[in-house]
Design brief:
Blueprint lengths: L1 E5 L6 H12 L2 E4 H10 L3 H10 L7 H12 L2 H6 L1 E4 L5 H14 L5 E6 L5 H6 L1 E4 L5 E3 L14 E2 L6 H24 L3 E5 L4 H15 L1
Parallel strand pairs: 1-3, 1-4, 2-3, 4-8
Antiparallel strand pairs: 5-6, 5-7
Bound molecules: BIS(adenosine)-5'-pentaphosphate and magnesium ion.
The site of magnesium ion has 3 residues, from α1.
Length: 213
């Protein structure tokens, strides 16, 4: 299956992506995760990305389009399919993705659109914790680790500070609608209510995807 997962920052894209990958075996391509890995390795691309990400701005399209196209061209994608998380995020990126998929002879099969009111998101992002060893995402209140929360084993994202979150929400709200409209026209969009328990959100997504395979 070749899929996109879309939604505002904190909507639950990464949380649901992990579950989709586990059940359906697709490759998870998160542009945010790719940038954070490059930042951790202090590559040139990582240093460039950091100057945008920490403020909550978007990394320039030409950089982002390049890394996605390269990843989509790798051998495992045709075999396993993919779930793109956090891309496209501008209408220009959507057009670049259409062109890249056409070049590679790959057909997009569905867009999961997680809907949630923006008033819920600050609380989600400010409580997000990520396990240092496994990279798994939890929430201090909404999804605490089963083994208990030991502060030393977890970190919080730099861009989850309130100033960055405010900017991320502004940027993503301004860019999101034309992208969804682009895919709605193609009949690919499945709207999912994001303000529900994590397991219920997944069960709604699972129903949609089970009809696609
Ligand atoms: P990215 O990493 O994609 O961040 P984002 O879109 O802001 O989304 P998040 O990862 O913050 O949220 P999420 O929807 O994955 O939520 P999660 O599941 O973690 O991008 C970061 C930055 O990189 C961008 O700002 C930009 O600078 C750059 N970038 C990335 N892609 C780019 C692109 N295409 N173009 C240009 N720049 C790009 O959940 C959040 C929290 O809520 C967690 O704690 C979770 O446990 C909890 N939670 C999840 N679901 C529920 C639920 N149902 N109920 C209660 N709590 C829940
Ligand atoms: Mg994410």
């Amino acid at each position: 299956m070749n899929l996109l997962i879309m939604g505002l920052p904190g909507a639950g894209k990464g949380t649901q992506a992990a579950k989709i990958v586990e059940k359906f075996g697709v490759a998870h391509i998160s542009t945010g995760d790719m940038f954070r890995a490059a930042m951790a390795n202090q590559t040139d691309m990582g240093l460039l990305a950091k100057s945008y990400i920490d403020k909550g701005d978007l990394v320039p399209d030409e950089v982002t389009n390049g890394i996605v196209k390269e990843r989509l061209g790798q051998a495992d994608i045709k075999e396993k399919g993919f779930l793109l998380d956090g891309y496209p995020r501008t209408i220009e990126q959507a057009h670049a993705l259409d062109a890249a998929l056409a070049d590679l002879g790959i057909q997009l099969q569905g867009v999961i659109n997680i809907e949630i009111d923006s008033s819920k998101l600050l609380e989600r992002l400010s409580g997000r914790i990520i396990h240092k060893e496994t990279g798994e995402t939890f929430h201090k209140v909404f999804n605490p680790p089963a083994a208990g929360y030991n502060e030393n084993d977890y970190y919080q994202r730099e861009d989850d500070k309130p100033e960055s979150v405010k900017r991320r929400l502004e940027v993503n709200m301004a860019q999101g609608d034309p992208i969804i409209a682009h895919y709605r026209e193609k009949g690919l969009v499945h709207d999912i209510e994001g303000d529900q328990d994590i397991e219920i959100v997944f069960s709604d997504i699972d129903k949609v995807l089970s009809n696609l395979v």
